[in-house]
Structure formats: structure tokens, C-alpha cells
Specification:
Order of helices and strands: EHHEEEHEHEE
Strand content: 35-45%
Helix content: 25-40%
CATH superfamily: Gcn5-related N-acetyltransferase (GNAT)
CATH topology: Aminopeptidase
Distance between the termini: 34 Å
Structural class: alpha+beta
Largest sheet: 7 strands, mixed
Shape: globular
Number of strands: 7
Strand order of the largest sheet: 1-2-3-4-5-7-6
Number of helices: 4
CATH architecture: 3-Layer(aba) Sandwich
Radius of gyration: 14 Å
Length: about 150
């Protein structure tokens, strides 16, 4: 059974591998490693034994949180892992005083948009040519807890 846990240095290599598989401009191992010690960061993993199935990250400032990555190994996509990670990440942020979350998502990423809408996110605007490889616009989405 998969479990959600905080990322530690021990999982950074696996997380960087997932990022490289899923994103056209992935974070590097060094990027993840440098982000880990931050008090205003939260990186969660979905683990099965010692294997990372997926991860997500949140940067926090005052009452705002920016969701920076949600990624699941391709062979585990469609099994509800991203949903579990999002729920846990939102709860972690809220427990630390975050009431407004925001993120960017490719306009063509229908599964991710559906996931975010399921968790109360709404489209607030578009960032033109936000992504490269391929060049694409991003929806800016946010979720505000009243």
C-alpha cells in the first residue's frame, strides 16, 4: 500500500528521475536538494516501500502557496496517486496557514486541469507562451479557502 511522506535527501535521485520523465524542463537533482531544507517549502512523496511513485511541491509565503510540481511516474498514472498527493499537499499548506493556493498548468493538460478543479481550483487567467518544448500557454489557477 502506498504512503504519503515528506521528501528527504534519500529520495532526491528518484524524484529527479521522475521529473526528467514527466517534464520537458525538469528540475535537476541539485534543484530538489537545495529546496529541501527550506522552512517555507513542502515536498511530499507517494511511496511504495522504498520506491517513489510520485511527488509534489509547495512554496509558501505568508498565507499564499504556489504548487510547483505534481508528477507521477508514467506507469503509475491514472491510479489516483496525484489525487492523494494534492489532498495531502493542500492539507499540509492549510495547517501552516495557507489560505490561497495557485499554480500554472499547460492549457492542453486536461487530466491535470481536471485534478485541480476537483480540488477547488478555478482558472484565473492565461500566461502566454509560458512553457517551452513545446511552446504553450498556461492557465493560472487558484483556490481560496474562505
Amino acid at each position: 500500500m502506498a504512503q504519503i511522506k515528506l521528501m528527504t535527501e534519500a529520495e532526491v535521485d528518484q524524484v529527479a528521475e521522475i521529473a526528467a520523465e514527466v517534464f520537458s524542463h525538469p528540475w535537476t537533482r541539485q534543484g530538489f536538494s537545495e529546496a529541501l531544507p527550506g522552512e517555507d517549502n513542502c515536498f511530499l512523496l507517494c511511496m511504495e516501500g522504498d520506491r517513489v511513485l510520485g511527488y509534489c511541491g509547495l512554496y509558501m509565503a505568508a498565507d499564499e502557496g504556489e504548487i510547483i510540481n505534481v508528477a507521477v511516474k508514467p506507469e503509475y498514472q491514472g491510479q489516483g496517486i496525484a489525487n492523494q498527493l494534492m489532498q495531502a499537499l493542500l492539507e499540509a499548506g492549510e495547517s501552516r496557514g495557507v489560505s490561497r493556493f495557485f499554480l500554472e498548468v499547460r492549457v492542453s493538460n486536461v487530466p491535470a486541469i481536471g485534478l485541480y478543479e476537483k480540488h477547488g481550483f478555478v482558472k484565473q487567467g492565461i500566461r502566454k507562451n509560458f512553457y517551452d518544448a513545446p511552446k504553450e500557454d498556461a492557465f493560472v489557477m487558484n483556490r481560496i479557502r474562505e
